[in-house]
Each structure stands twice: as C-alpha cells, then as structure tokens.
UniProtKB/TrEMBL annotation:
Annotated protein name in UniProt: Alpha/beta hydrolase
Ranges for domain Serine aminopeptidase S33: 33-145
Family according to the record: Belongs to the AB hydrolase superfamily.
Entries under Pfam families matching the protein: Hydrolase_4 (PF12146)
Species per Swiss-Prot/TrEMBL record: Nocardioides caricicola
Source domain of life: Bacteria
Keyword annotations from UniProtKB, A to Z: Hydrolase
Record bears the keyword Hydrolase: yes
Cited PANTHER family: DIENELACTONE HYDROLASE DOMAIN-CONTAINING PROTEIN-RELATED (PTHR22946), POLYKETIDE TRANSFERASE AF380 (PTHR22946:SF9)
InterPro entries referenced in this protein's UniProt entry, alphabetically: AB_hydrolase_fold, FrsA_esterase, Hydrolase_4
One annotated GO molecular function: hydrolase activity
Length: 297
C-alpha cells in the first residue's frame, strides 16, 4: 500500500510522518473518515514495524498518520536519540492536530494508537479530549516504577547498576550513549535474551541502536496509566501475558481504570510484530474493535 510523506511542526521542530489513506467508506461519516495517529515505543522509528499495522487499519477504512518523534528517525531536532517523555506526548498532540487537517478525514474522530512506551503516551495524549474517538494501547508501558521492579526480576543487579551509573553520568554531565538493545550481560537499555534479535528483525533504515543513557532516570516517574480514567473514548488494551519488558500487571490496572476492552496473548513483548506468531490476532482484534466503535450508526 502506498503512503504519502508529510511533515508537521512540534515544539518548533519539523517532524516527519507517513499518511496512509483509508480504503472505502465503511467507517466514513458525513464529515469524513476516522484517522489514526500512530507512533513507536522506546527509540523506535515508524519504519521499524509500524507499516503492517498501518496498512491493516487503512485497509479497514481508517486513514493513518504514523510519525517519528523529535530527535528520532527522519524527524528533525537535537539532541538526537534522547527520550523526553513530555516532548513525545507533545509530539503526539501536534500529530493529532496535523492528522485532523488531512483531506477526507473527520477531525472529531481521532484514533490514538501506541505500542510499548507509546502505549502509555496515548493514554496521556487522549485524556480529557472529546475529539478522540478511540484509543488502542499495545503491550503498553504505563508505570515506570513498576517497570523498574519488573526489570529487576529479569536482569542481574550488576547490569542494572552499570546502566544506572551511566545514566546518572549522562544526566549531570556530558551526554553518554548506550545501545538500545544488546546481548545479555552487555550494556544496553534492553538486554534480555532475544531482545536484540527481535528488535533487529523489525528495525528500519532510519533506526539507530543507540540511546541517551539517562532514559532510565526519565522513566522512573513515568505514570501515564493514571490518565486512563480520564479517557472519554473507548479503549482497547492488548497485553502480552509473558511480557518481560512492560509489566502486564500494570497494563491490566490501567485497562481497568480506563474501562477498556482487554485482549490477552500468551507471548512476550516483541511477539506482536509482523512475522511473529501473534501479530495476525493482534491486528484482527484492533480492526474488530475499531470497526465496532467507529461504524456510523
């Protein structure tokens, strides 16, 4: 499926996005088609596994705007490869404004879609808004403290201490980089068995395997799950029950607060992407959910 390249501005910086035009009028109202705003998780870029999701949703009749955060992928901005959670939520809001202006879409029927870290961002970006018609949160990271405790169950304390020390050094002095994904025992943000291979399997040409080491400190106070109760739109939360990267218990708690439809999958964090066993089911449930809540009455 073809897509168009567009740009929009967030925080004075030009962000790059792909626009997929929805097929058919099954979900169209008199005002136009619903439009999905989509972004990736930790250090992810839109060319790293998002296109199959976007194409499936466009085939179901939704426009899709998939974008890169400031400092990542094809978007502008400095510093590069540094995660600011507040800035990324602001990027979502700017992308929502851009999506509402696309030709043929209904600006009052925005759909927020996020995976992993972005699965939490969509809860914050969609809270208290009447122009958001649905929210899809996939294997979401919704509680930084819970994620830290979860990581301690799967990592050696020495590895956690090493990355934390580098993060503190990056925060108080010159920026220090580390790999996003690495092998067990190596320095990196994600070093569980299989993470390196899983991430490289979806990585696109704009993705870089490096991230500001201060990301762990940034995540410490991250609690977007608390915003779920402020959503005014139907919410779908898709939980990987054996998720070693984003604690499934925290996702379930946020889902309950947001009165969500919940789908569970007996898999790990990366098993929702194209080529993995559970991708087709995850996409099918998204299409079913969005068709149900967005079909004009």
């Amino acid at each position: 499926m073809k897509y168009g390249d567009i740009t929009f501005t967030s925080g004075g910086t030009e962000c790059h996005a792909w626009h997929f035009t929805g097929e058919g009028d099954a979900l169209a109202s008199e005002a136009g088609r619903p439009v999905v705003v989509m972004a990736h998780g930790l250090a992810g870029t839109k060319d790293s596994g998002l296109q199959p999701f976007a194409e499936a949703l466009a085939a179901a009749g939704l426009d899709v705007l998939a974008f890169d955060y400031r400092g990542f992928g094809l978007s502008g901005g400095t510093p590069r490869q540094t995660v600011s959670l507040a800035d990324q939520v602001d990027d979502y809001r700017a992308a929502m404004t851009a999506a509402a202006r696309l030709p043929g879409v209904d600006p009052q029927r925005l759909v927020l879609w996020g995976v992993s870290l972005a699965g939490g961002h969509v809860l914050a970006a969609g809270a208290h808004r009447d122009d958001v018609a649905a929210v899809v949160s996939v294997t979401p990271l919704v509680d930084g403290m819970a994620a830290g405790r979860h990581a301690l169950q799967h990592h050696k304390p020495s590895a956690m201490a090493r990355s934390t020390a580098l993060g503190i050094a990056s925060k108080v002095g010159k920026t220090r980089m580390m790999p996003v994904v690495a092998r067990p025992g190596e320095l990196g943000a994600l070093t569980l068995e299989g993470c390196l291979e899983s991430y490289l399997a979806i990585a696109g040409p704009s993705w870089r395997n490096e991230i500001d080491a201060a990301v762990g400190l940034e995540l410490g106070n991250h609690r977007p799950g608390k915003q779920a109760k402020h959503l005014r739109a139907p919410l779908l939360v898709q939980i990987a029950d054996f998720d070693r990267s984003a604690p499934p218990q925290a996702a379930a708690k946020a889902a309950f607060a947001g009165r969500a439809q919940v789908r569970h999958y007996p898999c790990d964090h990366f098993d929702v992407y194209a080529g993995a066993e559970w991708h087709d089911a995850v996409v099918r449930h998204q299409v079913q959910f969005l068709t149900r809540v967005l079909t004009p009455s």
